[in-house]
């Protein structure tokens, strides 16, 4: 019987919003129209549910030391906006989500950088990765917006790219070096560092010159190979094999797999992108199945 206490509806659950939204975007990108639209509807419902939940419970507070949940909120908002734009062809949803999510991501990142409490954990990275999602979305918007709006949007996006890169890489190196203990129910968090691999590759392709962006992506994906092996080993060998207690951390396995699919697509590796989309959908189904059977854990 699972005995894990779950947080109330709100930002702590925003990983499911992130994973569902990017699954919708990538499904639409790869021609899976109806699955993409269903996932988009689910993601929209999740945002509404989590908003009502936070207004009711006010948990967690915005001023807490651990800003990971609020980083997920910013990323979830921008991911959902991108999904709506992918579905409708209208730039408005992505632009509106970026206008809200980008400053939120920067504030959350800077606030978290003031202090990291407790033992090193991959959850630390949630706040510092969020500006990279803003960088990708902003770069995409800059490519679509007319002058004079395109240049300031691109400049802000590039700032988010640099902020996340110079803080995220040493932070994750610090966590790996600490060899953190990861309970099986939190094994999904081992995927979080891969988020910056795929997301920064996508951001580079919408912000930098093509040769530099391609070289950057090759380097990041090469670095990501051992990280991918570690994450798969911990998640599949820990959470999935043991059918570990359900926590929102299960959803940590979804969004990073999606960013790898997105990054691979920008590199021109369509087959690999489709493969990572398949992995994302498998992880999404596992998270839903574990939620549905959360009273029957190992």
CATH superfamily annotation: Voltage-dependent anion channel
Radius of gyration, in Å, reads 18 Å
Q: Termini separation (Å)? A: 7 Å
What profile does the largest beta sheet have? none
Instruction: Write down how many β-strands occur, each being a DSSP E stretch of 2 or more residues.
Output: 0
CATH class: Mainly Alpha
Measured by DSSP, the beta-strand proportion falls in: under 5%
Shape: globular
Mean pLDDT across every amino acid position = 96
Q: Could you estimate the helical fraction of the residues in percent?
A: over 70%
Named at the architecture level, the CATH assignment is Alpha/alpha barrel
Specify the number of helices. 10
Residue stretches low in confidence (pLDDT < 50, at least 5 long) are none
CATH topology: Glycosyltransferase
Oligomer: single chain
- N-to-C series of helices and strands: HHHHHHHHHH
Strand-helix topology:
Blueprint: H1 14-29, H2 33-57, H3 68-88, H4 92-113, H5 125-144, H6 150-178, H7 192-207, H8 210-242, H9 255-266, H10 270-292
Which descriptors apply to this entry?
single chain, 298 residues, mainly alpha, Glycosyltransferase, 10 helices
Explain what you see.
- This protein has 298 residues and is mainly alpha-helical.
- It contains ten helices and no strands.
- The chain has helices at residues 14-29, 33-57, 68-88, 92-113, 125-144, 150-178, 192-207, 210-242, 255-266, 270-292.
- It is globular and about 55 Å long.
- The N and C termini lie close together (7 Å).
- InterPro entries: SLAC1/Mae1/Ssu1/TehA, Voltage-dep_anion_channel_sf.
């Amino acid at each position: 019987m699972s005995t894990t206490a779950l947080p109330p509806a709100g930002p702590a659950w925003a990983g499911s919003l992130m994973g569902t939204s990017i699954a919708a975007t990538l499904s639409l990108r790869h021609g899976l129209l109806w699955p993409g639209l269903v996932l988009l509807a689910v993601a929209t419902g999740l945002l509404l549910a989590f908003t009502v939940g936070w207004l009711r419970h006010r948990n967690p507070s915005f001023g807490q030391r651990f800003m990971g949940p609020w980083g997920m909120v910013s990323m979830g908002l921008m991911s959902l906006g991108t999904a709506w734009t992918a579905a409708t062809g209208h730039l408005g949803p992505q632009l509106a989500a970026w206008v809200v999510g980008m400053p939120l991501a920067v504030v959350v990142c800077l606030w978290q950088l003031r202090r990291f409490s407790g033992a090193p954990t991959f959850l630390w990275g949630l706040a510092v990765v969020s500006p990279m999602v803003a960088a990708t979305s902003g770069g995409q918007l800059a490519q679509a917006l007319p002058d004079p709006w395109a240049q300031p949007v691109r400049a802000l996006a590039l700032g988010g790219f640099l902020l996340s890169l110079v803080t995220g890489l040493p932070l994750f190196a610090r966590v790996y070096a600490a060899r953190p203990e990861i309970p099986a129910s939190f094994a999904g968090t081992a995927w979080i560092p891969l988020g910056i691999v795929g997301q920064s590759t996508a951001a580079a392709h919408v912000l930098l010159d093509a040769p530099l962006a391609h070289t950057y992506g090759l380097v990041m994906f090469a670095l990501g190979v051992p990280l991918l092996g570690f994450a798969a080993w911990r998640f599949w060998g820990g959470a999935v094999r043991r059918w570990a207690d359900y926590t929102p951390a299960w959803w940590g396995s979804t969004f990073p797999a999606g960013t790898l699919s997105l990054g691979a697509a920008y590199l021109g590796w369509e087959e690999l992108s489709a493969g990572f989309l398949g992995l994302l959908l498998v992880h999404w189904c596992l998270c839903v199945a574990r939620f549905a059977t959360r009273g029957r854990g190992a």
